[in-house]
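User: structure tokens for this one?
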Amino acid sequence: MSLATWVNRHYSEKGPAKWLAFLLELVAASVLILLMLTTCLDVAGRYLFNNPVPGATELTRLGLALMVFAAMPVITWRAGHIVVDLLDRVLGKKVVKALGLVSALMISSSMYFLAVRIFELGERSLRRGVVTEFLGLPSGYIVQYIAIMSWLTAAGVITLGVYRILFISHK
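Assistant:
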């Protein structure tokens, strides 16, 4: 089975979003595997050989940032966030759709402006030469990655979120 066939079978997104979702999930899964290996090697090295992996804590922090922010746009596109719908039956479909639109606009705009500020902080970190504490890696690139993933999340909220609210009926 080819990769394209497998992706088409397992991903419901359309067009380039399908491949972007696959790529982001591949990044998140790969980082998760590397985090597990790093943790296992660190624990084994620490307790069996009294020699932990240098910078394992820092690698774990960076890996968590990579993994979480790679998964965030995909989870948002698929409406995988926790939703409290206590008042949906009371308010009616039109009010729920209107509130959904308002919340999609608020979330996407706040994610966009938050990403702008985060990207600026990443640029400042790069200009100042800020590096991680132990390994000396430039931290600005990770910060800018977080901003880019936040922009993708904002785009997902505004496009797919609004599409689902307007054109897919609620139960």
